Amino acid sequence: QVQLVESGGGLVQPGGSLRLSCATSGFRFSIYSIGWYRQAPGKERELVARITANSYLNYLDSVKGRFTLSRDNAANTAYLQMDSLKPEDTAVYYCSADSPYGMEHWGKGTLVTVSS
């Protein structure tokens, strides 16, 4: 049974930090690319950061220098460290996993609210 479970969201003040986790099971994590997406109210879902099986990274321009995506293949878990958070980072954050063979899995999301 494939599972992706996001955690670590919450309410944080502008300038603060959060660390999101994506704990996975039921598939071969190490060969999948892992992406973090977000969807703000009234907006389309957008890719925030992605890490390939070979640890190649890419980031949304607006989060470069503030967010860091990493993966721990031994723990089947990916992390998104978010620093210098801004109100415009407020969204539901989703973890996804996609394989070279076209398989794709999604978590249910975790809410991040940046507000004073």
Molecular structure report:
With about 120 residues, the protein is an all-beta fold. The protein is built from no helices and 11 strands. The strands form 2 sheets. Strands 2, 4, 5, 6, 9, 10 and 11 form a 7-stranded mixed sheet that branches. A hairpin with a 5-residue loop joins strand 9 (about 90-100) and strand 10 (about 105).
Structural class call reads mainly beta
Number of strands: 11
General form: globular
Q: What's the N-to-C terminus distance? A: 40 Å
Count of alpha/pi helices = 0
**Helix and strand pattern:** EEEEEEEEEEE
What value does the Rg take, in angstroms?
13 Å
Give helix % range.
under 10%
Largest sheet: 7 strands, mixed
Name the beta content range.
Answer: over 45%
pLDDT below 50 for ≥5 consecutive residues: which ranges?
A: none
Mean pLDDT: 97
Q: What is the multimeric organization of the chains shown?
A: single chain
Question: What's this entry about, in short?
Answer:
The protein is mostly beta strands. It has strands at 3-7, 10-12, 18-25, 33-39, 46-51, 57-59, 67-72, 77-82, 91-98, 104-106, 110-114.
What's the helix and strand layout?
Elements: E1 3-7, E2 10-12, E3 18-25, E4 33-39, E5 46-51, E6 57-59, E7 67-72, E8 77-82, E9 91-98, E10 104-106, E11 110-114
Parallel strand pairs: 2-11
Antiparallel strand pairs: 1-3, 3-8, 4-5, 4-9, 5-6, 7-8, 9-10, 9-11
